User: Which sequence fits this backbone?
């Protein structure tokens, strides 16, 4: 199955396995994916492979800050402390629901609409994840668009030595937090299976921030012979979250825990059935075909206004103001087929991979409906939607890459991808008074290549350059009002991503991966001010300019005990994950208060110079524990680099630093206890300002919270 086998082909040298008093500890030594795995080629690419451990991250509440700690440069928007959304970005890309990242589960996409609205509303519980596989921007060739690269969550599988296995973990903590994870799995003959149910509830750190989240998953695999298998998987994620609203700077300084909204709610429901076929024709050739459907909806009901305008009873209506209701409905189908063939080039083995993708998706968008004046989650309307659109995308893609093993140590991996995207939009906007009809067909090729040199001892010098793109989303071609005009020649954002790095280890003492990167991001979309022949001023949606993000990413880890005492059942490790990103607009202009202002030399929005995460991990026979420090430098919330706005919607996002702690203790073979403290010293900070949902304003990050858990696996 596509991507699901990434780690299976890892050499035995990748992991050290220690037997300690009936406790097996497996530790990943190499932090990157192998040259060839499944039907994928990773030689020469910047990759990572994370194996999750409750003693190294707070998995019960999906703490991304700890889970991605060893990946340099991951910028995280912390919208809530419950982990209901994954909001990550790298190298100057947008963190908002990972909108510029190709997010996958077991190899298939979970973004709601890969092209028109690529936000990721699907929520997988980290307790169900066995590993996370990451490819930087060079992922565009094998996996599709997005400057943010590819992130694949590989879910757990049932114990193949048992007909029935069971695991359960119950966690409780601050603010009435409760998380329940329960799973069964096993194998009987040629059939293997795994299924889980996860539920997470709580009041939230701020008032008016309650949440109720559920996730379901079932996988049934039939191994019909030694060569092939077919699997059916079904996933569902749904949650209802109360949104406490944004704050102004004055409100944040006075009390960062206060709420400005009590009647705002958000509710996504995403279903993903998938069929995965895997067949090995012989030892050199294998085929993987994945087909999946993504259908569901995204609902919100809220009083939308800046944080300095309270949501109070309207004196003329004698009730609260009616709220705005927005609803999206998604229905998409994707099939990807990949073939990998290994062949002899001289006396050495080289590998060729190729694949095709068919994708079709329809989004029905209904926005700006006038809802009730109630205070609960209520999607009923008293006035029809002001925006009613049908958005359709049809995509065909093909790619090919070849890893040429020129010597025992040196590989060259050129590749290309061809994309065809057909987009249509129809419907009405502006209180249903303005019709919209838009159609565009585009096609373009992407090229790239990777180089890798393997030194004695396993260290590698690697480099790659690959083109990437971001299709303009539906919002870029849908006028917000009658004063907005769409550039009929608006273009997709295009550019490239380049890496040059050195990675490896020195014995069992020191592991490292250090690289320089350069990302060119052309044709970023935005609005300008334009005056027509009748001297009427309009907002003009078009490509506003080009940006560049360049810098250094470095990961290091040192073992302090085990290398010097081979018989020791314990180890103490220190790691540091550091990135420096210099993100700037190199050209362009944007509308600011009715005037077009140059963007040249402005900082890319949401791009801090420095991100540093360091940790101390203790490992013993039954115990693992991590104390982690995080530092994120200041950034700007908009392309104008606004320093202050009285509403809090734009301005500087200050630097912050904080500590987290995670602990796991296993006992009596089948049981374990967990404990975690997020934001150990109660730092006061925020990671994002926003001028749309769910604000506008500052969205405060959670203060100190804790949880404890008890688990069993039999």
Assistant:
């Amino acid at each position: 199955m596509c991507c699901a086998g990434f780690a299976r082909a890892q050499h035995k040298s990748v992991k050290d396995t220690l037997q300690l008093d009936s406790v097996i500890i497996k530790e990943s030594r190499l932090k990157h994916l192998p040259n060839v795995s499944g039907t994928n080629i990773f030689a020469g690419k910047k990759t990572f492979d994370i194996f999750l451990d409750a003693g190294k991250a707070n998995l019960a509440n999906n703490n991304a800050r700890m889970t991605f700690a060893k990946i340099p440069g991951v910028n995280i928007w912390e919208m809530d402390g419950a982990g209901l959304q994954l909001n990550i970005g790298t190298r100057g890309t947008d963190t908002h629901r990972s909108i510029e990242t190709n997010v996958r589960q077991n190899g298939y996409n979970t973004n709601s609409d890969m092209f028109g609205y690529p936000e990721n509303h699907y929520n997988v519980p980290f307790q169900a994840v066995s590993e996370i596989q990451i490819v930087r921007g060079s992922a565009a060739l094998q996996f599709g668009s997005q400057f943010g690269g590819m992130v694949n969550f590989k879910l757990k599988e049932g114990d193949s030595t048992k007909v029935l296995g069971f695991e359960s973990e119950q966690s409780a903590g601050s603010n009435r937090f409760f998380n329940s994870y329960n799973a069964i799995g096993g194998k009987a003959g040629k059939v293997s299976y795994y299924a889980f149910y996860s539920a997470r509830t709580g009041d939230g750190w701020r008032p008016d921030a309650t949440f109720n989240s559920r996730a379901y998953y079932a996988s049934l695999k039939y191994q019909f012979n030694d060569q092939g298998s077919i699997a059916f998987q079904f996933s569902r994620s749904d949650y209802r979250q109360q949104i406490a609203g944004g704050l102004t700077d004055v409100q944040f300084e006075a009390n960062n825990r206060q709420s400005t909204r009590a009647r705002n709610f958000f509710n996504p429901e995403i279903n993903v059935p998938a069929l995965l076929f895997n067949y090995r024709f012989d030892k050199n050739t294998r085929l993987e075909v994945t087909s999946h459907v993504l259908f569901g909806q995204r609902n919100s009901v809220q009083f939308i206004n800046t944080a300095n305008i309270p949501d109070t009873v309207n004196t003329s209506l004698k009730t609260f103001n009616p709220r705005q209701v927005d609803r999206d409905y998604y229905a998409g189908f994707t099939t990807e087929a990949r073939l990998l063939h290994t062949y002899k080039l001289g006396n050495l083995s080289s590998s060729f991979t190729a694949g095709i993708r068919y994708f079709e998706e329809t989004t029905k968008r209904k926005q700006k409906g006038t809802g009730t004046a109630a205070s609960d989650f209520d999607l009923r309307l008293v006035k029809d939607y002001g925006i009613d659109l049908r958005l359709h995308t049809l995509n065909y893609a093909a790619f090919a890459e070849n890893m040429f093993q020129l010597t025992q140590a040196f590989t060259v991996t050129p590749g290309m991808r061809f994309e065809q995207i057909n987009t249509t939009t129809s419907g009405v906007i502006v209180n249903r008074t303005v019709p919209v009809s838009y159609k565009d067909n585009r096609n373009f090729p992407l090229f790239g290549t990777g180089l890798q040199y393997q030194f004695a001892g396993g260290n590698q010098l690697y480099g790659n350059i690959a083109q990437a793109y971001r299709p303009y989303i539906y919002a870029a071609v849908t006028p917000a009002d009658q004063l907005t005009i769409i550039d009929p020649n608006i273009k997709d954002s295009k550019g490239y991503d380049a890496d040059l790095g050195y990675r490896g280890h020195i014995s069992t003492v020191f592991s490292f991966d250090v690289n320089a990167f350069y990302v060119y991001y052309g044709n970023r979309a935005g609005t300008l001010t334009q005056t027509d022949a009748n001297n009427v001023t309009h907002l003009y949606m078009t490509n506003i300019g080009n940006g560049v993000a360049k810098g250094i990413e470095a990961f290091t880890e040192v073992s302090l005990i085990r290398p010097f005492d081979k018989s020791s059942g314990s180890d103490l490790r220190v790691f540091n994950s550091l990135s420096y990103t210099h993100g700037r607009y190199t050209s362009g202009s944007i509308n600011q208060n009715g005037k077009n202002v140059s963007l040249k030399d402005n900082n890319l929005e949401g791009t801090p110079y420095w991100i540093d995460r360091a940790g101390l991990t203790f490992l013993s026979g039954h115990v693992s524990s991590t104390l982690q420090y995080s530092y994120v430098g200041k950034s700007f919330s908009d392309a104008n680099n606004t320093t202050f706005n009285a509403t809090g919607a734009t301005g500087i996002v200050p630097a912050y630093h904080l500590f987290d702690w995670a602990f796991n203790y296993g006992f009596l073979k089948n049981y374990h206890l967990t404990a975690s403290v997020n934001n150990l010293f109660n730092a006061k900070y925020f990671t994002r300002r926003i001028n749309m949902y769910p604000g506008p304003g500052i969205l405060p990050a959670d203060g100190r919270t804790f949880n404890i858990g008890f688990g069993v696996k039999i």
Notes: The longest helix spans residues 249-254. The chain has one domain: 36-713. The chain has a mean pLDDT of 91.
